[in-house]
Amino acid sequence: MDISGLSNVYDNYLTQQIDEAQTAKIKSTASKDYSQSTDDELMDVCKQFEAYFLEQVFKQMEKTIIRDEESSGSSSALVDYFKDSAIADLATQSTKTQGLGIAQMLYEQMKRNYNL
Predict the structure, then answer these.
(1) Burial status of residue 24 (CB atoms within 10 A of its CB: 0-12, 13-18, 19 or more)
(2) Counting beta carbons within 10 angstroms of the beta carbon of residue 21, is it exposed (0 to 12), middle (13 to 18) or buried (19 or more)?
(3) What is the pLDDT, as a whole number, of residue 1?
(4) What torsion, rounded to 10 degrees, do the Cα atoms 94, 90, 24, 38 define?
(5) From CA 107, how far away is CA 99, in angstroms rounded?
(6) How confident is the model at residue 31 (pLDDT cuts 50, 70, 90)?
(7) Sign of the C-alpha dihedral, residues 57, 59, 63, 66?
(8) Are 24 and 90 within 8 A, CB to CB?
(9) How confident is the model over 34-82, as pLDDT tens digits?
(10) What is the dihedral of CA 76, 15, 8, 67, to 10 degrees?
(11) How many CB atoms lie within 10 A of CB 51?
């Protein structure tokens, strides 16, 4: 019995679940009224956005890697399983340590818009 297609089905399901969770998180963040927020809360939200943005950039960069046929073994399935989590952690750590400056610019813009 050939079960090689099950890996793709599971990967698609997992990707869909992660995308739905991220969409729900973004909607809940976007619907909050930040006019009464403290500076720390506002900066935290801006850093979350920058981390999400970097995560999407990293995922698209990873898709450009050319893979050979030999990398479809069991070790590749293990890497695929943890890939999304690793990319999310990398994006979060990149934002915390150095960042691109997007969070700071967004923070300043939100302070102007909310007259804080």
Answers:
(1) exposed
(2) exposed
(3) 43
(4) -30
(5) 13
(6) low
(7) positive
(8) no
(9) 667 788 888 898 999 999 999 999 999 988 988 776 655 666 777 777 8
(10) -40
(11) 22
